[in-house]
Write a structure and sequence with these properties.
There is one protein chain. The protein is an alpha+beta fold and about 100 residues long. The protein has a two-stranded parallel sheet. Strand 1, helix 1 and strand 2 form a beta-alpha-beta unit. About 0% of the residues are buried.
């Protein structure tokens, strides 16, 4: 899987048309007040579908109401999975 092309710019630096055109060619545009403060983090490992489903299930189970905070909690759990160190492989028992 190739890393995406990311363009970090101050808000209102690009028109909506420019953003659409960039998205069509695969450029991810991120707007932030201080682009120089951006830090890109590479995931230490791929997140399995099992881990994704576990994060979704935990979010749903913890939720008390249907609000937009569900999406934020899910995103938080996925990010936690992405940046956690990979688990060591299981050890085989000696025979």
């Amino acid at each position: 899987m190739n890393d995406p092309t990311i363009l970090i710019v101050p808000p209102q630096n690009l028109s909506a048309k420019d953003k659409r055109d960039l998205a069509k060619i695969g450029v991810v545009v991120i707007e932030m007040d201080n682009p120089q403060d951006a830090r890109l983090i590479r995931a230490s490992a791929e997140v399995s579908t099992t881990d994704m489903l576990a994060a979704a299930a935990q979010t749903i189970m913890e939720s008390k109401s249907q609000t937009s905070t569900h999406a934020a909690r899910f995103a938080e759990l996925v990010c936690t999975l992405l940046v956690k160190p990979p688990s060591p492989p299981p050890q085989e028992e000696p025979r």
